[in-house]
Amino acid sequence: MTLGIDWALPRAILREYNELWIVVITYLSAAVMTSVLTYFFLMLTARLAQEMLFDLRNRMFVHTQKLSVEFHERYTAGRVIARQTSDLESIGELLAGGLNELVIGGMFMFFTAIALLILDPVSFLVLLGALIPLALLTRWFQVKTNRGYRKQRVASSRMIQYFVETMTGIRAVKAFRKEKRNEKHFGGLVEDYRKHNAHLIQLFGIYDPGLIMIGNMTVAVVLLVGGFRVLDGSLGIGVLTASILYARRFFDPMEEIAIFYNSYQSAASALEKISGVLEEEPSVPEPSNPVPFENAKGKVRFEGVQFQYSTGPVVLKKFDLEIPSGQTIALVGTTGAGKSTLAKLISRFYDPSLGRVTIDDIDVREVANKDLRREVVMVTQEAYLFSGTVAENIQLGRPGASLEDVMAAAKAVGAHEFITRLPDGYDTDVNKRGGRVSAGQRQLISFARAFLANPAVLILDEATSSLDIPSERMVQRGLKTLLAGRTAVIIAHRLSTVSIADRVLVMEHGEIIEDDSPTTLAAGDGKFARLYKAWRDSLV
Ligand SMILES: Nc1ncnc2c1ncn2[C@@H]1O[C@H](COP(=O)(O)OP(=O)(O)O)[C@@H](O)[C@H]1O
Ligand SMILES: [Mg+2]
Known about the structure:
This protein is of the alpha/beta class. 64% of the residues lie in helices and 11% in strands. It has two domains: 2-278, ABC transporter transmembrane region fold; 300-539, Rossmann fold (3-Layer(aba) Sandwich), CATH 3.40.50.300.
């Protein structure tokens, strides 16, 4: 540039064009080189960004899935979704748009400053002086937005969480006519989010013009200082022109960098949330040296077990129980007595805080997860079906099972009839129109799944509660087949199931208060006898 003005231009005026050509060609080739290099650089950063995002997304999924039931009961689905969607997206935005801007901008500023230093050290000093207000302004912006983005993340997460919860509980919402109230609450959350965003935009609205002002003032000072030096002849006009251009261009990437910085702050708060999840450890860790566990007999023992949920009081206090292998237990008791907790401890969804739970005298904490899942199966009221066909859903019980085995399992629990009546029989997609199955049918499918799994220990936690009386009768017949030859714990709220049990346990406040055969208990005068009489009377 200086060469162009101070050396080539005067010659060109004298009609000697060679020097001008040299300068122009050098300039042009530099421009082409810049474009080509920028292209490769962009490709590279974009690939890197996409890979990082892909990796983070996968790690989030794998990790959240690996975490224990304890985490999921505490950290709702809505919050997990917020992490996986809006938080990851804000990181994606940063990686996609911002990163290369920062590198290009930073390099651009660095080399511009170096060029200016070589060209005119005095102007360089002026530029250096401008960095002080720049740093102050940036620091202010950083502190303010840091706080702002944290609040914005929380607000965004609350919004998503509420949305997810409302939609998953839509039946309850409708049943209790909660739409109006929800509308208002959600409106409030959206308003909150909007307010935080507006505040952030406001901050940026101060920062950005501030940058422009600092840039312009720097140029003005360079011009002023340079102007005096040109006047007293110590500076060429070309050098001054170039200096001014350099000083101006030095600030060009500032706006991009500010935008980058903004999305950086947003992504940093998002990353904070995400790493919070990634740092969670499964509360029921895999044993490092699992004990071999195959062909279990299914003897279950609780030895001095104490247990409480992280948020609640002690549910079990020094609990002892032995279930011999092959026995069918009916567990009854008032709501909140701790029946499901017992089931979750046998399945090792949670670990006791004191004492131990054993199967065949092996602590369940020493058994590899996959072995335990094979030998202990719990069927709950929810009877969740995955998207896919009915056959696939039953097959989950034993991956690789043949269709004959699947059908045999369905027949054993009495599910075969209704399945053959579905539009595509066993190939009916449970999530497609027409393939929708009722809650009772879902339970039958999950029984078939459990039957196919053929575990040593089977737990049914109110698993027949959404069946009507005729379906329940049907299941009862299937249940006999399902329970034969294995240890079973049936948590039942209808006493009809109790008759097939070898032994009844009545639970109250985390303790077993009655323990005997159903006939003995029914003939006695304890709590079970009273419950049983009331139930029999209700049938008449
Ligand atoms: N995920 C949980 N977090 C905190 N407390 C829980 C949780 N699940 C159950 N509880 C509490 O533990 C106690 C026993 O619950 P539970 O075993 O589900 O009873 P039941 O199945 O007999 O109705 C209750 O007081 C209940 O409030
Ligand atoms: Mg329960």
